[in-house]
Each structure stands twice: as structure tokens, then as C-alpha cells.
Amino acid sequence: MNKSVVTVLGMLSLACTEPTVPGGKARPALRLPSFDVSLAAVTAVLPAGYQSVMGTSSNLFPHSWRNLRYQQVFLGTDLVDPTIVGLCLRRDERFGGTERLQTLRIKLGPTSMDYTNLGTSFDGNYSSAPTEVFAGDVLVSPATVAGTPADFDLCIPFTQEYEHPAGANVLVEVINTSIASANVLKDACEGDEALCTTKRIFAFSATATTATSPVAGGLIMKFISPDPPAPADPVTKDECMNGGWSGFGFRNQGQCVRLVETGEDSREPPAA
């Protein structure tokens, strides 16, 4: 099987729905995750070899398969920033699917394992306790074919950021407790691809402690890190134009330009 694409720049919203309950009464609209990924955000595609190429496979696990516990290992050296605040999956280039709500718990944690020796014990694969970064409903949006390497169309913002320790590989665990499965496949790689430095385990029970035998390959994921802090002072006059001066704390554009040209800072000092 094979894969997909959508750029995560600007606002990407996972829309709200109004599901019904027995008797036909509508529940209040669910507040589903929305993600605003700016152009400045630090991102890393893992495995790193798939930054600009598609994998040769696609997968429903774990985002589209109910009653599933899933783990996937990535090389920690492929991460760009140790602080992770969200992750995205890439649209497949060959397979689409229909929209469906999924209920997911996501954990991230360090491991000494890698794609050559990942074990079958979910808890035993961690080298220290994982961090639960998300728990809730995600709308897996309908997908069309013709995905590209830039097309990460399913993004989940974390409610708890994860700080990855140096020297460790990273485990992503997803527990899917949905009422029904979805059918949206996402881009993945196969274990026989040289670039596919990842492996996955899974069990068809959300409460399982032990998985089936590890399977080489897995989903292509994009990890989102926080925006870098804004510079304290402008470096060029262009940064002062079009209202940019206000972001540096100046009262007007002229004060901002003066600092760039002369070094004279006429901003109000911070209150004591």
C-alpha cells in the first residue's frame, strides 16, 4: 500500500461536530483540537529521510483503528528540538477516506530501544516514565489522494508539552478507545526501505500490556516544537515597518528606526 500530503502552515483546525445521543437529542458541540503552526515553528519529520520523499506504504494504525494500543520508536537524533508540543500525520498519495471522530490518548517517552530491537512490552520499552501529552477526541478529516511530502493534514496539539532527554530514542504511544474505526490511511514507510529507521508494535486491545511481534516500518510523523522567542530588538529598518515597531515595544515607527540607525533606545523602561 502507499501514501499522502498537506502543509501545516497557518491555521489548521480540526472542526467541531454535534453528535447525537439515543433519542435524537444533540449534545453540545465538542471542542476539538485546533492547531496554529506558524512559519517560524521548529519542526522535524521522522524518520528524517522522509523530509522530502513519500514512504512506500500507508497505515490505519493507530489514528483510525478502535480498541488499539500502539507504540512506534524513532531515533532521538532525528529530533530538531527536544521540546515537542504537537505532532502531525501525512496525507497518503494513493488512498483517501471518510471523516470520523476518534478518541485517543497519546504518550511520549524516552527509550534505549531502536528499530532493530524494540520489544513487545509496552511499559518495558520505556527507559523512564512517559508523559501523557493528549487525551480526547480528534476529528480525522476526510482525505483525498495525491498527497505530497509537505502535506501533513492531521495535526494534534498537545495539552502537555514533552521534553525529550538527550541521548535517548523516542517512543510515541497511542491508545485508541473509539466506538468505531475510521478508514483514513496515512503515509508510512516499510522496513525494507533503507531510510525507514522506525518500528512499531500494537495489540488489538486498548488495555493490553504485551504486543504482537514488532513490525518494521511505521507512520511518517512531523513533530512540532515551540516558536523560537522573538528578538528583543530590531536589527534592520524593515523589521520596524508595517507595524512591526509595536512588537518591540516602541510607541511609533520612528523610535524603532532610530534604534537601528543610531543605537538610541527611546522606549519606556519597564516598571520597577
Which spans of ≥5 residues are poorly predicted at pLDDT below 50?
A: 1-31
| Amount of beta strand | 25-35%
| Cα-based radius of gyration, to the nearest Å | 22 Å
- Enumerate how many helices there are, as a single number: 2
Distance between the termini: 63 Å
Give average pLDDT, whole number.
Answer: 85
Tell me the helix content: under 10%
Main sheet specs: 8 strands, antiparallel
Number of domains: 2
Order of helices and strands: EEEEEEEEEEEEEEHH
How many β strands by DSSP?
14
- Form type: elongated
Output the strand order for the largest sheet. 4-11-13-12-5-10-7-8
Structural class: mainly beta
Layout of helices and strands, plus pairs?
Elements: E1 10-13, E2 34-37, E3 42-46, E4 57-59, E5 68-74, E6 83-90, E7 100-111, E8 131-140, E9 152-163, E10 169-176, E11 186-190, E12 199-203, E13 215-219, E14 221-225, H1 244-247, H2 253-262
Antiparallel strand pairs: 1-2, 3-14, 4-11, 5-10, 5-12, 6-9, 6-14, 7-8, 7-10, 11-13, 12-13
Could you characterize the architecture of this molecule?
By secondary structure, this protein is mainly beta. The chain is 5% helix and 34% strand. It contains two helices and 14 strands, in the order E-E-E-E-E-E-E-E-E-E-E-E-E-E-H-H. An eight-stranded antiparallel sheet has the order 4-11-13-12-5-10-7-8, with no helix packed on it. It is elongated and about 65 Å long. Residues 1-31 have low confidence and may be disordered.
Search tags:
272 residues; mainly beta; 2 domains; four-stranded antiparallel beta sheet; disordered N terminus
